[in-house]
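Researcher: Good morning. I'm working through a list of sequences from a screen, and I'd like to move beyond sequence-only analysis. For each chain I'm collecting a predicted structure so we can compare shapes side by side. This is the next one on the list. No need for commentary yet; just the structure.
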Amino acid sequence: MHDTTTCIVAEDEALLRQALVAELARAWPSLKIVAECEDGASAVEALAEHQPEVAFLDIRMPGLTGLEVAAAAADASPRTRIVFVTAYDQYAIDAFDRGAIDYLLKPVKPERLDATVARLQARDTLPDAASLAALLDTLGALPKSTASVEPLTWLTASAGRETRLILIDDVAYFRADQKYTTVVTAEGEALLRSSLRELLPRLDGNTFKQIHRSTIVNLKAIAGITRDDTGRGTVRLKQRPETLTVSQPFMTLFKHM
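Model: Good morning. Structure tokens for this chain:
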């Protein structure tokens, strides 16, 4: 690769992200890190915006997993070559070994990172994002990351002076509201005193999908999805009059629905 190879790093734990960035600076001084991402949604957007040549993706992140980000990259940035970063997960490691997919185990060891950098610099057999998506399919569905706690079944939110108990199944979508989150149901809106990023790990990833950096939708609340000429999508809801925008990079996640 040429001297100004670009890269993004996606890792939700700040200390581990900083450590990986520091190790990359040592192992590959000319590498230009164009984005450091703390969740899967921002990683998808960074891939679409920067089209980097390399991406280091943590597998287990809030919201979108590293595997889902890699699937989105097939459309958002097909030439990006991806290295997964994972805590010990024998199922994933066995699959990656069979598919010649590169991965780093946490904590990342300098000599292992050096070997990965050498492969990237030599344009070794690492597949790009477009090839990787097909390869992951042939290896079989890898396990999704799961929350370390049980998914929420209800939540407490404020509507004026009233505190409401809202069943999670009744939520149509969540919308980021600065450091808080607006909860939208068929009946109206309420304010949740936590950020969208804090909420993500507590949601069932099979039911709730991020469609935009600031929006998470309940798949059961969707009446239909349309795509415009720019590649962006519009979600129509069953019990709400407004429509929701799906950022172009996130449309990949709806391909198999």
